[in-house]
Structures are given as C-alpha cells and as structure tokens.
Amino acid sequence: MPMNPASLSELRATFGENMQENVPLSGYTAARIGGPADALVFVRKADELAQAAEKLWKMEMPFSVLGGGSNVLVSDQGVRGVVIINRARLLKFNSKADLPTVHAETGVTPNDIAQRAARLGLSGFEWAASVPGSLGGAIYGNAGAFGGDMAGSLISVELIHRQHGRQTWPVSKLECDYRSSLLKREHPPVLLLSAELTLKHGDQAEIQSKMEQFSSQRRASQPPGASMGSMFKNPPGDNAGRLLEAAGLKGKSIGNATISTQHANFFINNGQTRAEDMRALIELAQKAVLDQFGIKLELEVELIGEW
Prior knowledge:
The chain is an alpha+beta fold. The chain folds into three domains: 5-86, Uridine Diphospho-n-acetylenolpyruvylglucosamine Reductase, domain 2, CATH 3.30.43; 91-221, Uridine Diphospho-n-acetylenolpyruvylglucosamine Reductase, domain 3 (2-Layer Sandwich), CATH 3.30.465.10; 226-304, Alpha-Beta Complex (Uridine Diphospho-n-acetylenolpyruvylglucosamine Reductase, domain 1), CATH 3.90.78.10. The chain has helices at residues 5-15, 46-58, 110-119, 135-140, 150-153, 182-186, 204-221, 240-246, 275-293; strands at residues 19-24, 36-43, 63-66, 72-74, 79-86, 91-94, 101-105, 122-123, 144-145, 148-149, 154-161, 165-170, 190-198, 200-201, 226-227, 253-254, 257-259, 267-269, 302-304. The chain has a five-stranded antiparallel sheet. It has a four-stranded mixed sheet with strand order 1-2-5-3. A hairpin with a 7-residue loop joins strand 17 (257-259) and strand 18 (267-269). Helix 3 (110-119) packs antiparallel against helix 7. The two termini are 12 Å apart. The relative contact order is 0.14. The mean pLDDT is 95.
C-alpha cells in the first residue's frame, strides 16, 4: 500500500530537495530492475546518512539503503517507505604510517579504494579491483574475490544503532563468514557509516600489475550486461556456476531474464526484465540443481520490496 499523504508531507518537510517521490528503483540497481520507492532520500556524507537514519527511526518510518545496487533484486511492486541512496564517498588515507590504513565512507566503491591505494603504493586491497557495488554492501555481505575478502581487510566499522547511537565495532563483532556477516544474518537495527581498512606498503608497479590481472580475469569469466553479480553462494566444496551448468541451465530464459551462457551463476537482464521473471528463473534453477544433485543453492542476492 502506498504511503499515506500525511507521512509524505512530513518527509517533504524533513528532507526537502534531498527527497524524490515515486521513483523507479531500476535506475539505482545494477540489474536495472525494480519498481518504485515511495520516497528516495539522497545523502552525500556519513553524517547526513546518520542524521537521515535518526530522523526516520524517530518518525517510525521504514527505510532501506542502496549504494551501488548490486546483489539485490527489487520487486516489481517496489519498496514501501523510504530508500536512502548512499553517496557518502569520503576517503582518507594514512599512507605514511608503518601500518597504513584508510578511512572510507560506505558509499564509496571497493574498486575506487583499490585504485586510489595503488596510486599511493599501498597493497592489500588488490582483490577488490573492479568489485561492483558499495563498501557498505561489501561489508554487509563480506564480499570477496581472488583469495581476499572484507573481513580480512577490515579493522573496524562505524555505525549508528537505533537504540544506542553511533558506535565503533571491531571486525570481530561483525562475525563474518563466507559471503555473510552478523548484519546480513540477523538484521540488527544499525546502519553502516564508515570503515577503517588495513593496508601495507608495496611496489606501485607490482600492485598495479596484480590489479590489472584480477580485472582481466573478472572480465574473462564474468559476463557483461545488467546483472546482480553472483546469484548463488558456492556450496561447501563445490561451485554454484558448475552445478548450474551441469544441470543444463546455461542460456535458460524466462521473459527477458536469462542465465548467462558465459557463466551460469550470472542471471542477465536482457532489457525491461520483470523482477517476477527473474525470481521465477531463480526458483527454476534451485529446483533443477536440487532435483539433479540434492544440493539446495542459497541466494547470495537479497530480495527487496513487496513480493
């Protein structure tokens, strides 16, 4: 049910020109899929993100946050309440210390951190070159590639808690495991604002070479086009893409949603794809793998909105 006029009026008064109404989320997701949000609120600094969360909690207004919009499938019916578009992208490198670090707001991309670090001759984050989405989403889902992941790069995060205000959590408190964290598993009432990452001094040319190698491998193995990224988590001791391919699912389509012929763990929007068709393709793939191999594939992507 759309938001009532009184709530919309209160939001307009609170957020003014930083708010838009009834906006399709297809323009804010990597898959280019998604119905309208009742309201979009744009923030450009971590402090603005914290203030927006505090105001919305005080109003008892449901909200969600999008950064790069990867790893999410938004329903055709859209999202009730507010969607915060996180564009808080401040980066501060402490490059002179023996153990260099970077302070990063959660709207920045992991790729941008990796590229900036490389130019400063700082190593340890090369794995994140060309990783899509935002830092906030990467922490939330413990993103990783080429033997690295967020849990291995994080020192701490700053977040705002609905009951307890702004806090700093060490990485251990996030209880990260494969493509997951406490935040993703339990959905506590918190919002990630920024993070402190650990880096190392290195040779700029070597760092750049390694990043180019990783980016090249990603381009060679992952299909172009609008997708959410990896659809399913790899089951223990196996590979989701291998299982989907072995089940004969490469190239399978429902509507304009297609399982990539290049890498079966990528589901592509071939233009004006309905979220319902994408979800139907997900369920078809899960059933085929379960029937043929007895393995239940777990989504890496999250479903958002009214289903």
